């Protein structure tokens, strides 16, 4: 198994893409700390934990709101305590929010909240966790195709994802040199999860038509292989990269 006995932190591991990544990592032998915030997600987080434990791996739940500036320290402390370890091998910064906001109805409060969760939290997590990563540590950012793709209602979200990708490149340089850590990002295209559950059938059809590979909606398993690879030893010479995982949706 490619992640045998690695300790991984997956933010937003209670649902959607994060839950799929957490389980895929456990299948590859990792122990996983699942970070989430909402009391309403406790049951699904417990289910993910149980599924990981059924694979013979350890899992812990860390319920904390990543909007808090000090969230990195909380996740660090709880992970080290929960696994009785001094090191963390893999950080998947996946938790994120998306709310539609038309350019001419710019919402400053939404801007601040989106930036806090999608940009500041990853920075806080990296600041706290990178120092306890052994050489060969891995940072995987789940960003978005929206970082490079324009939509009339995505100004804020797109800006947050472009920003986190820019930070990821800087981490690749700063932490690569000092700690031997790689940092890479995945830009997912459209995956049906709770974040976009309100999208119309018409829009889903549009996403199906945009793809170069097959006329279907993506499944979380279409992304987990890449997330495993970027966390594994096999990706050791790849850093500062952003890989789009969208079935070729942005090819035109
Ligand atoms: N699905 C897509 O089509 C798509 C496309 C491109 C990029 N992405 C990105 O992929 C990532 C995962 O998205 P998803 O589709 O899986 O979304 P999702 O199903 O809505 O899950 C979001 C996850 O993030 C967590 N989260 C949100 N705000 C948080 C906070 N303040 N503190 C702690 N945890 C928080 C949620 O925790 P709770 O359960 O506690 O709320 C949940 O686990 C996001 O960064 C998203 O931008 C998704």
TrEMBL record:
> Which PROSITE patterns does the record associate with it?
ADH_SHORT
Q: Which PANTHER family match?
A: NADPH-DEPENDENT ALDEHYDE REDUCTASE-LIKE PROTEIN, CHLOROPLASTIC-RELATED (PTHR48107)
Which GO molecular function terms does the record list? oxidoreductase activity, acting on CH-OH group of donors
- Gene3D superfamilies, per database record: NAD(P)-binding Rossmann-like Domain
Among InterPro entries, the record links this protein to: NAD(P)-bd_dom_sf, Sc_DH/Rdtase_CS, SDR_fam
| One protein family per Pfam | adh_short_C2
Keyword rRNA processing in annotation = no
The transmembrane residues are: none
Does Oxidoreductase appear among the keywords?
Answer: yes
Q: Taxonomically, which superkingdom?
A: Eukaryota
Keywords associated with the record: NADP, Oxidoreductase
Please report which protein family the annotation says this sequence is part of.
Answer: Belongs to the short-chain dehydrogenases/reductases (SDR) family.
In Swiss-Prot or TrEMBL terms, this protein is called: NAD(P)-binding protein
């Amino acid at each position: 198994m490619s992640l045998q006995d690695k300790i991984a932190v997956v933010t937003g591991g209670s649902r959607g893409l994060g839950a799929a990544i957490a389980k895929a990592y456990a299948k590859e032998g990792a122990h996983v700390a699942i970070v989430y915030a909402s009391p309403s997600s406790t049951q699904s987080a417990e289910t993910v934990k149980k599924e990981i434990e059924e694979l013979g791996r350890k899992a812990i739940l860390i319920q904390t709101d990543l909007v808090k500036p000090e969230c990195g320290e909380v996740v660090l402390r709880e992970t080290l305590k929960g696994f009785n370890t001094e090191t963390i091998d893999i950080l998947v910064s996946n938790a994120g929010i998306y709310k539609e906001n038309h350019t001419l109805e710019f919402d400053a409060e939404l801007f601040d909240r989106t930036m806090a969760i999608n940009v500041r939290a990853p920075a806080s997590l990296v600041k706290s966790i990178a120092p306890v990563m052994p050489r060969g540590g891995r940072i995987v950012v789940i960003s978005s195709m929206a970082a490079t793709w324009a939509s009339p209602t995505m100004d804020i979200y797109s800006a947050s994802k472009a920003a986190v990708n820019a930070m990821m490149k800087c981490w690749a340089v700063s932490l690569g040199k000092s700690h031997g850590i790689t940092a890479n990002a995945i830009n997912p295209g459209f995956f049906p999860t709770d974040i976009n559950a309100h999208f119309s059938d018409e829009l889903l059809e549009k996403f199906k038509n945009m793809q170069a590979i097959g006329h279907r909606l993506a499944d979380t398993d279409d992304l987990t292989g890449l997330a495993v690879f970027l966390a594994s030893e096999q990706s050791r010479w790849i850093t500062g990269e952003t890989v789009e995982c969208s079935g070729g949706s942005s090819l035109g």
